[in-house]
Amino acid sequence: MMTPMRYVLLVLVLIISLHYILSFSHEGYGEATSITHIKEKLQGSSSTQKPETFNVDDGLAPGAKANATFVILARNSDLAGISSSMKQMEDRFNKKYQYPYVFLNEQEFSEEFKSRVTELTDAKVEFGLIPHDDWYQPKSINETRATAAREKMVQESVIYGGSVPYRNMCRFNSGFFWRHELLAKYKYYWRVEPDVTFFCDLHYDPFLVMQEQKKVYGFTISLYEYEATIPTLWNAVKQFIHANPELVEPENALAFLSDDGGETYNRCHFWSNFEIGDLDFWRGEAYRKFFDFLDEQGGFYYERWGDAPVHSIGAALFAKKEEIHFFNDIGYRHNPFQHCPQQPAHAHGKCWCDPKDNFDYEWYSCLKRYEGLFK
């Protein structure tokens, strides 16, 4: 006959055994679903195990979403390219999350354009007209000087060197898109362009990564800018820094931009045709003053300053380096470059890009400089 003491010991053994079995069967669950481990997991490892599914909604209220939108700058003539990009975004990600879209144009969108793109999603879609002064060349620009600069660039075969509309676009994206009234209610945005490709399924919400990890800028491709388009940009940047040293973030990413402590610019920038960002960062005092200073120099028209280097310099100087995020698992192409995730992220996302066709470590890529920030 079993004594009371032996009975108690037997019960304890059974409880401990059951706890061990349950713990073993759920091994790694907490780590895989913790937001603090997402970056490490998505960048891959040497393990041959099948990648786990990540969902940053875990631990949040059902249906939790960030206050975010897609931003698409387009003309009516971009309808085919926009439809392709948007359909991929819906199939790869937004069919599940249904984040809204904001379309912006310097002219009114046609009824055909609005009807076609609205049919591609169940999410809310808004169409906005860009204010005249936010788009067109300012009256303060000396047109004689600007014309001469464009003609010189055409002679030197600089891409978009003779285009005024392209310059308008660069200036708008640098300093005005985030001021548009349709974006006033949002905190985060994802920029989408015509004729881009999204290669992989997304099993988590990048907007929530930005929110939960307190990121302000996300990218997939980084590269060197054409030197002929920005000959005096860095001099202007140094003038601004000298006049406003208190605006520079002490834990900045200057080393991504410069190899000599800021004396010269190595021309590295994040390719802004893809970017996921915090609108409040652009709205903040540092970046607003920075853009206004650059705008006064006239370099968007006297040269061909692009929004990619302007955004990149702003993010690198006025944000902490840890607030800039490489979305390694988002397969993306904007001709002629693409980022194709490597294993195990490639299999996890069901990516259809060729892993060998990957710009990350080509000679013209700046990804190594970004990674060097954290070594």
UniProtKB/TrEMBL annotation:
GO molecular function, a single term: alpha-1,2-mannosyltransferase activity
Organism: Pleurotus eryngii
Protein name in the entry: Glycosyltransferase family 15 protein
Family designation: Belongs to the glycosyltransferase 15 family.
Catalytic residue positions: 275
GO BP terms: cell wall mannoprotein biosynthetic process; protein N-linked glycosylation
Keyword flag Transferase: yes
Signal peptide bounds: 1-23
UniProt keyword terms in alphabetical order: Signal, Transferase
GO cellular component terms listed in the entry, alphabetical order: Golgi apparatus; membrane
